User: What shape does this take?
Amino acid sequence: MRLYRTTDGFFGEERNRFWRVEAASWEDLLGDADLHNRVSAESQRAELLESLDGMTLLSPVSTQEVWAAGVTYFRSRSARIEESKDAGGGTFYDRVYAADRPELFFKASGRRVVGPLGEVRIRRDARWSVPEPELTLAIHSSGKILGYTIGNDMSSRDIEGENPLYLPQAKVYDGSCAIGPCLLLESGNLPKETAIGIKIERNGAHAYVGQTTLKELKRPVAELVSYLFRENSFPEGVFLMTGTGIVPHDDFTLVAGDRIVITIDNIGTLENQVASS
Ligand code: DO4
Ligand code: MG
Assistant: This one.
């Protein structure tokens, strides 16, 4: 079962049938630890619709903070070691991949998050920019996982590679975070076979195609959540991106106009275009 936030309100969905979910606000829904049952119960009362045609999908992030985990896939570890080798940053990535404590960083306030079909940005002072397709958790204030969505952790690899201390500038800027298109309302672990795919389209052709599965994710998502909630509280819930397992080859950089299409099994597709400046 999925939950959509739109310009016309909130809608549950299962097997392509949609129904309105009455709620005072998105915070009201994300504040409900029993969200799955609440949305399911509404399906018994409400009229069923065949589509959300004519409505604009909004990101499932409203006022919540977005955090991100890093170096949770071997591919991410290797790519960061390579990009930072001249700066001597390589051993940090190797060590964090193996350490008990994961890398967690603040990615975006809700205001900065771009929704489905919105424009993401590359920094004007970056030469090497990539999208990072990431399974993203929607978490209740108690730490319970309410559901899953798709995130794009836009990143400037040249800035991050020059010095690991530049990470916040490589990761946090206007248009650097896209999340959507809905929440998959599941509290348990997703199957390890769950595929995460990305296609980058440029001038009608594929400039890059990549795929991974959750088998490659090194850490259990519950472990990432438990570290995030150490000494941090999130009264309105929080979103946590779980890291990327797909990094394009080193001669690839995004350019304005690229269409980024990220798909995760059972959740759906998050599509965004790179803005012209
Ligand atoms: O440490 C740099 C960022 C890592 C990251 O964003 C990822 O692995 O997805
Ligand atoms: Mg990332």
The two ends are 37 Å apart (CA to CA).
